[in-house]
Design brief:
Shape: elongated
CATH class of the largest domain: Alpha Beta
CATH superfamily of the largest domain: FAD/NAD(P)-binding domain
Strand order of the largest sheet: 17-16-13-14-15-12-18
CATH topology of the largest domain: FAD/NAD(P)-binding domain
Radius of gyration: 25 Å
């Protein structure tokens, strides 16, 4: 049998990984990578603040699968075959060492995404993958002789025996695989920051807290983790995670909803009342606004106290029961209006894509169209922040590449 001609649509992480996997598994195969933009691996370049959060140090596939708001169950099997352990080994075998940070995120020891880009592009070159930029696929048709006929954006036509779709972000009415019978879960943003048009919030830009609890009233959405104030509102892992789990819910609300914040999640209301009493007894002469409440930064403590009705003249010794009740409510359940969203530092993750029921996760091959495969952003899979989206890209790309390479 003649060696397969394999075309990968999408020059992102999963596309590159699939191309390398296929070419290395079957050196006789002709592997072509098509990217519609002039740039390759652009999301790898900007991820993790330019450091590239390659994966996460969670090595139990079942536990790891719980970090995916959509697609986690389907990933358990694939993660068993190619998970973080295999990812670390893959890069290390190519002289790229990864380090683990205190929160479990894994980065190249160089702290540069260019290290990962160089590794992928060099691995593709050595495996003789042909890379063509500014060549998007406009339409796909099946060939009477088997395989596919691709009509490209530059006007050219290509044929292949096996095709991998590894791109994301297409609308259902314009996705090239729709003509082949596949449906598409409409994509909506995930992993985004919140806009709040409140001067006191915007004035805190740059401040961060190690741990808060955020929730969305009227929903089951609740997350705990670090919080960052920005010039336009709120960001940080707690916000990004709740945006991922609530991607479709928040989109249905047109990104206008209340957010509730417990600023001291390790302290109960009773504990706060006890601390107020302690302050009455030990530092009663001090002004309330000038007595910072750790771990809150001084500026934030002062603003929260003002929201509770504390005045510049209030001292702890004269702090009334009514004032204490108001302060407890603010510290445990400040409610603020969200009026929009922004992408997370140009990193763009969506939920939506090819329904998982239409894909065989043992091979990543379409259940509807033989010879058609999917990986990465093409699938209705997305993870929370922390390296999980890249891991699903490596996992699905590797499996698809291995499967396509078989003669």
């Amino acid at each position: 049998m003649n060696p397969p001609r394999i075309i990968i649509a999408g020059g992102g992480a999963s596309g590159f990984f699939a191309a390398i996997s296929a070419a290395e598994a079957n050196p006789r195969a002709e592997v072509i990578l098509l990217e519609k933009s002039p740039h390759l691996l652009s999301k790898v370049r900007i991820s993790g603040g330019g450091r590239c959060n390659v994966t996460h140090a969670c090595f139990d596939p079942r536990e790891l699968s719980t970090r995916y708001p959509r697609g986690g169950r389907a990933l358990i099997g694939p993660l068993t075959r190619f998970g973080p352990t295999q990812t670390v080994e893959w890069f290390q075998s190519r002289e790229v060492k990864l380090k683990t940070e205190s929160d479990g995120r894994m980065f190249p020891v160089t702290d540069s995404s260019q290290t990962i880009i160089d590794c992928l592009t060099e691995s593709a070159r050595r495996a003789k993958v042909k890379v063509l930029t500014e060549n998007g696929i406009q339409s796909i048709h099946t060939s009477s002789q088997g395989g596919f006929i691709l009509h490209l954006s530059q006007g050219a036509t290509m044929e292949c025996t096996r095709l991998l779709w590894a791109g994301g972000g297409c609308r259902p009415d314009s996705h090239p695989v729709s003509s082949l019978g596949h449906s598409l879960v409409p994509p909506v943003p995930s992993l985004f920051t919140f806009h709040l048009q409140l001067p006191w919030i915007n004035g805190m830009a740059g401040l961060s807290l190690e741990s808060v609890e955020v929730s969305i009233p009227g929903t089951d959405l609740r997350e705990r983790g670090p919080l960052l104030f920005t010039h336009t509102g709120l960001s940080g892992p707690a916000i990004l995670r709740i945006s991922a789990w609530g991607a479709r819910t928040l989109q249905s609300l047109n990104y206008h909803f209340p957010i509730r914040i417990h600023w001291l999640p390790d302290t109960s209301s009773e504990g706060i009342l006890q601390e107020i009493q302690n302050r009455r007894e030990t530092i009663g002469a001090q002004m309330v606004l000038r007595s910072r409440w750790a771990p809150l930064p001084g500026r934030l403590w002062e603003q929260l106290a003002l929201l509770a009705g504390v005045t510049p003249e209030d001292r702890w010794s004269k702090f009334s029961r009514e004032s204490a009740t108001r302060l407890v409510k603010v510290l445990t359940s400040t409610e603020l209006p969200v009026t929009g969203k922004s992408m997370n530092k140009e990193e763009f993750v969506t939920c939506g894509g090819i329904p998982l029921s239409e894909v065989d996760f043992k091979t990543m091959e379409s259940r509807l169209v033989p010879g058609l495969y999917f990986a990465g952003e093409a699938l209705d899979i997305d993870g929370i922040t922390g390296g999980y989206n890249f891991q699903s890209a490596w996992t699905t790309g590797w499996i698809a590449g291995q499967s396509m390479a078989v003669i």
